[in-house]
Amino acid sequence: MTAEQQTRGAWPRGRWRWIAAAGVVVLFGLSALDLYQHYTLGYGSLAGAFDIDLDAGPLALGLGLGRAISLALAWSRPRLGLLIALLTTAVTAAVGDAVSPSEPWPWAATAVFGYATVLAIGGARGLTRGQLIRWWFVAQLLSVVAYAPSWTTTNLAPGIVMAVVSATGAVLGSLLRSRSEARWRLAEQEVISETERSERARLQERARIARELHDVVAHHLSVVVVRADSAPHRLTALPAEVQQEFAEIGEAARASLTEMRRVLRLLRDDEPEPELEPQPGLAQIPELINSARQAGADVQLKGVVVSEVDPAVQLTAYRVVQEALSNAVRHAPGATAQVAIGRSASALIVRVENGPGTPAPIVAGSGHGLIGMRERVELVDGTMTAGATSDGGYLVEVALPIGEDGGS
User: Fold this and answer.
1) Who has the most CB within 10 Å: 56, 189, 294, 358?
2) Is it the case that residue 364 has pLDDT exceeding 90?
């Protein structure tokens, strides 16, 4: 966005609006007095050629109003303001003459400074250097046209003064525009710097969390893997069932380590590399239930595993079943759990219900597991209900929307 687009239609604010309004009023009054006192309006070359008799008073007021309007428009429509200023000067040259050779013509003193001011304001409001040069050149062309009929006898000094003063206004306008653009660029850089600082703080926080996870969780999981794998060698004469239990514990810990490494990569990398292994889904739920059974839980799977469902929905269903079974084993040991998976016309329905266990059932809303499940479900625009059942057990039920083709 250019400076002209950013400031288009904007009248000055604060005290500058009163200064701008006063400048318009002053230019109107001085222009009208200057034209009425120092020019014989109604008897110019055009009026004489067509034998037109015009009243000098209203004409001076009208031309003064035109200059004032050109200055007022310079803030919002600089091109239109410059055009009106040129037309006002052209009309002045056509219908009026200076009362003496010493008076500037066709550019009155108020016209010269008015046009230079409009050029300066127009530059500050977005006119490019090339546009300012073109408007300056058009003004000099008007002077040449006005001087052409009596080139040898006309005083050219007013035209030279007009060229110098208007050039000064154009240069000032170009400088003001450059200053305005520099301020805009500085403001943009400040916004960019603030965004970069926020992004850096976010990445640093993610790196800190990754370090904490690695130092605490991953370390303890590694210890579990090492102790589980080495137990059959350290402890002699272990029954085969116990050795198998240690092997399964080590395998579960290794799977947790793999998941932990994936989470750490997500935290450390803004754009992590694609996972080489597929995410767990509905097809892996039977394996999850077998693992829970091997850990001593009584889990029953009802319904069929639905296929052709969006991977994000499948991953959410898997995580819900995983967390619900973990809660059941942790808070209701010895209870029977039932996992039911089905599909309605527009949603995948997942139910995990456990009976009462020892020592006590899960209390609704306790822990962070339910919060995590609810957040996962909401990410795919699903719904979740969880609460105690009438027999003292606990029920988690989610509905994950799916399209006709299985997409989310």
Assistant:
1) 56
2) no
